[in-house]
Amino acid sequence: MSQPIISLRSISKAYVMGETTVNALKDVSLDIHKGDFVAIMGASGSGKSTLMNILGCLDVPTAGSYLLDGIEVSKLSRDELADLRNRKLGFVFQSFNLLSRTSAIENVELPMLYNHTVTPRESHKRALAALDIVGLKERAHHFSNQLSGGQQQRVAIARSIVNEPVLILADEPTGNLDTHISIEIMAVFQRLNGQGITVVLVTHEQDIAQYAKRNVVFRDGNILSDALVTEPRNAATELSAVRS
Amino acid sequence: MRIFSILRMAARSINRNKLRSFLTMLGIVIGVAAVIAMLAIGQGAQNMINSQIASLGTNLLMIFPGAFTAGGVRSEAGTASRLSEDDAVAIKAQCPAVMYSTPMARTSAQVKAGGQNWRTSIYGAYPTYIKVRDWDLESGVCYTDADERGATKVCLLGQTVITNIFGAGANPVGQIIRIKNLPFTVVGTLIGKGQNAGGQDQDDCIIAPFSTIQKKLLGATYAGNLLASAVSIDQVEEARQEVNQVLKDRRKGSQGDGVDYTIRTQTDISNAANQTAQTLSILLASIAMVSLLVGGIGIMNIMLVSVTERTREIGIRMAVGAKGRDVLLQFLVEALVLSFLGGILGMIAGAGVSWIISKSQGWPISISAFSLLLGFGFSAATGIFFGWYPARKAASLNPIDALRYE
After folding, report:
1. Of all helices (H) and strands (E), which one includes residue B90?
2. How far apart are the C-alpha atoms of B48 and B64, rounded to whole Å?
3. A46-65 pLDDT, tens per residue?
4. Which residues of B touch A97 (CB under 8 A)?
């Protein structure tokens, strides 16, 4: 098997809150390979958000080693982490986190603003292409607050893929959307995954996790179970079934 | 990050809160306007003083009779005038740094012509007087050395005298004017010089040959004072020393210490005037500093509010790869743009205020490129100084906390 994109070895994360120390993650080891579609599940407080922050290079572990695409992350500085987030990762959040009163295309271009290797012309071209992938090319110049929730989330997905990341991290991407729109969003993720993009999804909804290929369940800072989904749901087929 | 996109972000953010941005800028606007207006008025006042001093003749040396000391008893200045026509001639002959030199005889008298009369100052001086004073003729000619030798009764009239005797705009060249009942022929008229630095009307005078005034009007043997002009403005000090030497030499062996005169130059007078203007400028500048300080605090305050309001935006930017310095630059540029806009508005306002003051008060104003640069520089410095802390605060936010901020 090829070298994993993500390789966590004995990761621990402890927060000091006043006099008590909270061990959010305890000795977690996890490998995620290229092309994987992993759903990370667990109740709140199980450590899945902490794991997400560490995977997303927003935080560094207290102990252990984290290799992202062959780079040891746990010892990097703030600026190096920022570069890594910019080049290797794409984020999708529950609350979309688009810049308000800013057009869709400018939101998508945002990561490339901090990537000096991309020229403005190239940036515009890539942003349009990314919007095309999520089916919002004709809405490129709408302000984000003029778009529906589902459309906003698709703009966020376009933003996450525009820098050609090795991994998309989605934190409860369907949490603020109704069932039908959720399936549409999952269809987008499945399509991207089909094109070889690795997706890690955090969710507490069993239904949504069924669209992934692999489910990792957390409890109390440990991995409770890690299993392949025997028969993943296919969002695209479900959608066409609803339409017909 | 490219400077163009940073500027665009700043412009957009300022545009989004138009009223707030304007109110924030107002402090800088007032500060810069104060700088511009005050410098304009101060500079104008200084120029006015300088031109008044220059109207006396910039290379001018004035030699006044000084205190006469005899046997240790020092008498009042001017009590014993020992300056003579010969002194003036000697100065001209022996001082290479002196271009012209003339003795002066001064009196005042009632002058009459055509049923009008007027009391004015009568100056007796060599024809070179108008060159020493750098004073041009409006019409006619100056009297000549021949008039000087022959003590001819000819004269030049100042504008105030013409206005009061002949009426404004009249040309009295060729007419007869009676000074102490002696008939003088008007050979020329002087252009108006206005007031001198002391507020005295310089045009209220009649100039006539020294010999005529000395012999026919005063019957004196001494000159009231002497005037000389240096070859150039750089040689005024040299001329002063030479004149001093000549006069000293001519007084050797006389009673007392020999130094019974005072030499004053325009530099002495303008130094004093400039010092006053400088004190005024420093005072005005400190007022401007205070308003810029207040304006800067306003910018800092609103930038801190802005950072708090946009915490989530900062989080998003950091999540997609903005480094601390990208965020720092964004907020710093925003503060700079605010203060620059304030600076530009302030310049316009300052120029407007200066113009209104100059029109309504009749004060001369002068807006220099220097004052505009200064205003601009100060607004930029204020922006950087007071924008730094909020920008630093934004840059040091933790992305996780910033993303969760509600």
Report:
1. helix B85-94
2. 26
3. 888 899 999 999 988 999 99
4. 312, 315-316, 319, 403
